[in-house]
Amino acid sequence: MKKLSFIPIILVLLLFGCEQKQNGALDTSKLEKVEQTGNATEEQLKRIPILYNVPSLKVGLDALPFEVKPPKDLPFDAMPLKMTIEDFKHDGKELRVDFMSISKNKDDDIIFMISVHNFKVEYAESLGEEVQITEGVAGYYNGSLSFEKDGIYYNIGYNNPNISEEQIKEDTIALAKQML
Q1: Residue 81 to residue 179: CA distance in whole angstroms
Q2: Residue 152 near residue 116 (C-beta atoms within 8 A)
Q3: pLDDT class for 124, splitting at 50, 70, 90?
Q4: Can you list the alpha helix ranges (DSSP code H) found in the chain?
Q5: How, if at all, do strands 82-87 and 32-34 pair?
Q6: What is the DSSP letter of 177?
Q7: Which of 22, 123, 114 is nearest to 64 (CA)?
Q8: What value, to the nearest 5°, has the Cα angle with vertex 110 and ends 146 and 62?
Q9: Number of domains the chain contains
Q10: Going by C-beta distance under 8 Å and a sequence separation of 6 or more, which residues neighbour residue 124?
Q11: Are 96 and 115 in contact (CB under 8 A)?
C-alpha cells in the first residue's frame, strides 16, 4: 500500500516539470544573472535585457522554453560552445540565445557564432542570396546565414580565413542542417 502513495507524488512532480516548459518562460533557477554595471537609472535598466551566463550547455538548453539543437560537429578543431541567454522583456518570454566557439589553435582566427531568437527579428542578411537548407526550410546567405523554423529565428556566422568563401558558405549551411 505504501508504494501506491508514491505514484501521485511522482505524477505531480512530472506534471510540474512539464508545466515549466509549457508556460513558455525561461527557467532561471540554475542560471547566473549578470549584474549590470554603470550609472543606469532604474527605468533604463528595465529596457536593458537581462543577461544570463550559463554554467553548461545542458543547463542552458534545459532552461529554455523552446527547443534548440546546437550543432555537434563543427568544421574546425573547436573549443566547446559557450552559451549566454538574454531576456528582453524581463519575463523570460522574449529571449535571445547566443552560442560561440573559437578554434583551439589561437593563431587560426576562426570564430563561430549562432544567435537564436524566439521572437521575430529582421537580419540585414535577409537581403542576401536565398539558399535551401532542408526541404521546407530556406535561408538567406550574405556572409552569414539567417533562417526561421517554427517561430524560432536563427543567424549563423562563421569566419575562417583558412578556407574559401564558398567553403565557408557550404560549412555554414551544413551547420544549419544539424540544427533542424
Answers
A1: 14
A2: yes
A3: low
A4: 2-22, 42-47, 57-63, 165-179
A5: unpaired
A6: H
A7: 22
A8: 55
A9: 1
A10: 142
A11: yes
Distance (Å, rounded) from C-alpha 14 to C-alpha 118?
25
The CA distance from 88 to 51, in Å, is 9
Grid cell of 20 as nine digits: 515549466
Q: Which of 155, 94, 89, 105 is nearest to 126 (CA)?
A: 155
The whole domain housing 121 covers 2-179
161 vs 168: CA distance, rounded Å: 9
pLDDT category at 57 given cuts 50, 70, 90 is very high
In angstroms, rounded to a whole number, what is the distance separating the alpha carbons of residues 16 and 136? Answer: 34
Report the distance separating Cα 146 and Cα 128, nearest Å. 9
Q: Which DSSP string do the residues of 66-95 spell out, in sequence order?
A: S-----S--SS-BPPPEEEEEESSSSSSSE
